[in-house]
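User: Quick sanity check before I run a bigger batch. Here is a single chain. Can you write out its predicted 3D structure?
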Amino acid sequence: MFWAGVPTPWGEFYAGTDGASIVALRFPGPRPGEVGPRTPIHDRLAAELGEYLTGRRREFGVPFLARGTPFQEEVWEELARIPYGTTIAYGELASRLAHPRAARAVGQALAANPLPILIPCHRVVPAGGGVGGFGPGPAWKKRLLALEGTSD
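Assistant: Done. Predicted structure follows.
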């Protein structure tokens, strides 16, 4: 995987590519490994993330690919169907997958999401309120939810 910095209005993210697709996205903070120069796909991601983080984009066109277990990939595919500005509960997501008792497993799949924001795991919240877990931290999740106009 080839990593490069991706400048945005919210700081420098890091994106890993396989040459054709974005395969990993890390939030601003420590470098994920050796970082090289940006490629055209990194530049496209920087532009699209910048538009998203300033409220001018709701969907991404940059090619991305998430690899995981079959269950993780099923969860991530369903995540991609959650519209901008909408939140659902972990249990509701499990029910959509025909696994109504798998809310905890859904949460574990969300934690393994290699492409937060692009695959919008921040849109899944606890049924009883609050923001729930998020790999980059609850402050980032709250910020993304506020950007999208949700108040969870």
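The first strand starts at residue 2 and ends at 8.

User: Great, the batch can go ahead then.
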